[in-house]
Amino acid sequence: MIRPVKAIVLRNLIKLSRDKMKMFFTLFMSGLFLFIFSFVTRSAVAGLEHPMNYLISGIVIMTVFQTSLNNSMNILEDISNGFMKEILVAPVSRWQIAIGQVVSSMIVAVFQGIIIVLLGLFMGLKIDPIHGVVMTALMCLVGLTFSSLGLYLATISKESTNFQLLITIVSFPLTFLSGAYIPTMAIPKILAPIIYLNPLTYTTSAFRYITLHMENVPTADLLKSGIAFNVNGFIIMPLMSTILIAIMGIIFLTLCVSRFNKADFSRVKVFRHGHR
Q1: CB-based burial, 214-233: b 16+ in 10 Å, e otherwise
Q2: Closest CA relative to residue 167, chosen from 69, 59, 22, 62
Q3: What average pLDDT does range 124-143 have in this prediction?
Q4: How far apart are CA 199 and CA 141, in angstroms?
Q5: How far is 96 from 102, CA to CA, in rounded Å?
Q6: Would 227 disulfide with which of 10, 97, 222, 233, CB 3.0-4.6 Å?
Q7: CA distances from 146 to 176, 200, 246, 256 (A)
Q8: Spatial contact of 227 and 276, defined as CB atoms under 8 Å apart
Q9: Mean pLDDT across 79-89
């Protein structure tokens, strides 16, 4: 039961390792956002003790999020080159293929997140081994959650262009209303309902709580720094945020496996430049 999943994971990792341009572009964009939003963060959270570390932790988790979603495009490429047709006729269950796709996307996303963490160490980010392990575990949870969402979106897309549009529609507003680049305290209060409904808001807050070693910080300060949230008198602490992420992960994984089992891949079209 595990061997087919492992084989798919290894195959996808080898394939992705050869696409160095895609990995470089993701890391480049993360570095670009780090440079641009560092100026915004310094002014928006002037009272925060380590504003750059606050931003770096957001960049890390957004790298994991974006990579998790974008890697789901690989399933459409497998359909276009005939690989999916071959593997579907093999004695392998569809749910095993789906799990293999999700796990491989998660591993790549976490790997790229760790690279940003290592870069952050040169910018003043301090991580001890215990917090490093917890951070990696949370990145795995986030990667699993949004890799599942990405695979679900890929399986409901009839064409690769539709998938790219869906990814843009989903990721763009979620990213900029999560507090990752622009702190939630600096976002207009009229957008508060969207912020509280945004799953990335809780992903970012939980990751910052661990990364910035805020275990002994009073609740009032957590609220002030956007790590905890007061929703009509109900306080959402980072631990509850982590639980919410886990619940979303279970839901997205269930949805993507269920949809993958029913998907008709013969109707999926992949757009290629220069091909009509």
Answers
A1: beebeeeebbebbbbbeeee
A2: 69
A3: 88
A4: 13
A5: 10
A6: 222
A7: 16, 10, 11, 11
A8: no
A9: 69
Find the mean pLDDT for residues 249-262: 88
- Six-digit token string for 224: 């002030």
Rounded to the nearest angstrom, the gap between the alpha carbon of residue 124 and the centroid of all alpha carbons in its chain is: 24
Provide the residue type at 35 as one letter: F
Instruction: List all residues 6 or more positions away from 42 whose beta carbon is below 8 Å from its beta carbon.
Output: 51, 52
pLDDT-derived band at 276 (thresholds 50, 70, 90) equals very low
264-269 long-range contacts, CB within 8 A, separation 24+: 265/79, 265/84, 265/85, 265/88, 267/158, 268/76, 268/79, 268/157, 268/158, 268/159, 269/158, 269/159, 269/160
Question: Where are the domains positioned within the chain?
Answer: 2-264
Half-sphere exposure at residue 57, Cβ-oriented, CA atoms within 13 angstroms = 31
The token duo for 130 is 């215990």
